Amino acid sequence: MIKAGIIGGSGYTGGELIRILINHPHAGIDFVYSTTRAGKPIAETHEDLVGSCSLKFTDTINPEVDVLFLCLGHGNSIAFLDEYSFSAKTKVIDLSNDFRLDKDSNYKKREFVYGLPELQKEKIKNAQNIANPGCFATAIQLALLPLAKKGLLAANIHINAITGSTGAGVSPSATSHFSWRNNNISWYKPFTHQHLGEINQSIVSLQNNQPNIFMLPQRGNFTKGIFVTSYMKFENSLEETWNLYKDFYVKDPFTHLSTKEVHLKQVINTNNCFIHLHKHEDVLLITSVIDNLIKGASGQAVQNMNLLFGFDECDGLKLKGSYF
């Protein structure tokens, strides 16, 4: 049984991570660090854990844990690792964007590997530290990477990506307030979202040239999930494309092709990504859906932990969604 430490366990991703780890067959939670909630029961903050988690938040760390999850705001992971030291055997999985790009992946004595299992599973297995992908980046890459692998991505790719309110984090803001978000929809960071960097990096690693990606992120009036539609000019037949995707994901237990149109309720509270392909004349439409907090964050982090420690990739992640 490996020991896990969690930094920043009071947020949405921290809560999901705790929920997954307390049911993991090979991992136990050693500590959940929080300076603002130290000494308080975790279940007071994450109320879905009442009756299943008796742990309390702490303001002390164990530098000898086997794996450390950083569930901190962007830019804060570097600051935390600058302040605290951990054993050389401690594997770090960072859920922020601090180490995702190649130019940021070397931090002092720690080298971070980009942790999208469907892209580079073998490299993850041999890594010591993982930069967990972003939620938008996960859903979009899973839609596009099979085409990039064959060098088939068109010059211009148009992407509409809509996310639930939990994507904005636990701290209230003007655009996550219920009275603003409910019965509403809006775009933000048009064509400039920070996840484009890691998306482009992965595409270039497969097909050696970078297409123009026009990404329009949108805020939805729901809590969890990401719904992505990507479309481009495309010559190959739908049957050829289907087989290409099927072959690409044949060894990936959480990414599935659907012959029917997909929707968010199929994947909420699971670590799955569902993908649907549709062809209209010379335009290919790819729809991909994930739970932003699980496959887009904490579930994928545990999936990476499983690969790092040689566990079954699915351990602790056979989560059951709720259709209604």
UniProtKB/TrEMBL annotation:
It is found in: Cytoplasm. Residues 3-127 form the Semialdehyde dehydrogenase NAD-binding domain. The keyword Amino-acid biosynthesis applies. One of its GO terms (molecular function) is N-acetyl-gamma-glutamyl-phosphate reductase activity. Pathway: Amino-acid biosynthesis; L-arginine biosynthesis; N(2)-acetyl-L-ornithine from L-glutamate: step 3/4. It holds the Pfam family Semialdhyde_dhC_1. It is an enzyme of class 1 (oxidoreductase). Its main location: cytoplasm. Keywords: Amino-acid biosynthesis, Arginine biosynthesis, Cytoplasm, NADP, Oxidoreductase. The active site is at C135. It catalyses: N-acetyl-L-glutamate 5-semialdehyde + phosphate + NADP(+) = N-acetyl-L-glutamyl 5-phosphate + NADPH + H(+). SMART domains: Semialdhyde_dh. Its EC number is 1.2.1.38. Belongs to the NAGSA dehydrogenase family. Type 1 subfamily. NCBIfam families: argC. Catalyzes the NADPH-dependent reduction of N-acetyl-5-glutamyl phosphate to yield N-acetyl-L-glutamate 5-semialdehyde. This is N-acetyl-gamma-glutamyl-phosphate reductase.
